[in-house]
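anyone seen this seq b4? input:
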Amino acid sequence: MSSEVQGVPIIEAAGSPTAIGAQIGAQIADRIKATIDLYKEIFAKTDAEILQAAAHFRIQIEGFAPDLAAEIIAMAEAANVDPGWLFALNARSELLSALAVGECTSLHFSGTPYMGQNWDWLEPLEDLMVLQRITDAQGHATLMLTEPGIVGKIGLNDAGIGVCLNFLPSTNPTLGVPTHVLLRQLLSARTWEDVGGILETAGTGRSANILIASAKGLAMDIEFDGLSACNHGAETTATLHTNHYLTSDIPVAEVLFENSDARLSQARALLHGEDSRSLDRLKAILSDRSNEDHPILAPYREVPSFRGMLGTDCSIAMDLARGEMHFRRGNKPDTGFEVVPVLKKNALTLSRRGGRTGWVARQAERPS
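predicted toks r here
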């Protein structure tokens, strides 16, 4: 671990998939083991049941992204854990797909390089989460926030492509390529055309919303419900998403819909102003607590029918053109954001700054 931001380690790894996995596993073995223990409790299944499901997802991952399967196996070996547990972690959204809890508010300002989200989930993960800066064998760099042992989540790459994630509950089967593996594969894209190809190859089989944007302001928003995928596209001013379906009438639990709809409505209400599409406005939306019952920036609280405290673990605002992630740990609105660049050579210091028509619109350009 070469550095940290607000107490969250920035893990550096480079080289082949096996080398990357081994480097990560060796650096955060204790965090990986703690994350496995946490999810064992949340999955609420026997070890045998979890590992049986993990074996299925291993086959899915090996068929879709063999390099990421190799990375997972090498990470497990370096951390001295059964690889089955890491395949289970990487499929955690699929194993929890029917869970009716709110998680995350995401947005992208249309036509701009600005996108971001609050990551709302389990309180213990604030102390376990990591930032990972990965450079592959071709020299391409990716920076992301993730959970120990999980290969992909929220982040951006040096080609100016970024991804955000919202959990969407579904009772449909979710047996396809895991969401977090798809997110990491999307971060391997070099062009907007690559993004479309990756989505087509991944198919359906997951329940999640994935918001994807480019440095030149292109965006698409894909809702997966287990059986289908619907391109929500990009809205005129901003594309926003919380935790209910916007492109279909698939129902979610009433308690979740109330919270999710309230956050979405409040975010939309905050879109207007003189700096309505700036990075500062994005941060302000992610920091909003105007609705005390359903705040966008959520303090940890107990959730009915769920064991454990949930809230905002961190906030992320990205400038895809500059190749920067602005990161804030926890859920205190007065905590500042710290800037972490995707390219390590620029990381001399961390500075504080306040109907579906197909996947592809046009090719994205790399940021200058």
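The mean pLDDT is 91. The CA atoms of residues 14 and 135 lie 5 Å apart. kinda curious what u guys think
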